[in-house]
Design goal:
mainly beta, six-stranded antiparallel sheet, 1 helix, 10% helix, 29% strand, disordered N terminus
């Protein structure tokens, strides 16, 4: 089963975040990434991807009919580094839908991290 969204229906957080979940935009060192990944809708064609601890590691962007993962890293000073970060090797990985379980399995499975 695949999720979908249209421009008239707001996307809900997927999966619902725990009360302590707080998105952060800081440097994440190389190595295992805390899962499951959290998806936070930005608009109808962009979904931010965060680790279970809140670190922003990229976005899913809808291009054509496909959702592509765009890795994002941050330098020590907090500056954005598109295409970098702990999931840089998964940059441009494609998904049918912004489904948190599918995205976690694809991105973290490829990295060898645990869900």
């Amino acid at each position: 089963m695949h999720a979908f969204c249209d421009t008239n229906t707001p996307m809900s957080l997927s999966p619902p975040q725990p009360p302590t979940f707080k998105p952060t935009f800081l440097h994440v060192p190389p190595g295992p990434v805390a899962g499951p990944l959290q998806l936070l809708p930005v608009n109808a064609t962009v979904v931010a991807v965060h680790t279970a601890t809140g670190a922003h590691v990229g976005s899913l962007k809808k291009m054509g009919g496909t959702w592509k993962f765009k890795a994002m890293g941050y330098d020590a000073a907090g500056g954005m580094e598109p295409g970098h970060g702990p999931l840089t090797d998964q940059h441009n990985m494609q998904f049918d839908a912004p489904d948190a379980a599918e995205v976690s399995a694809g991105l973290l499975g490829a990295l060898g991290s645990t869900l």
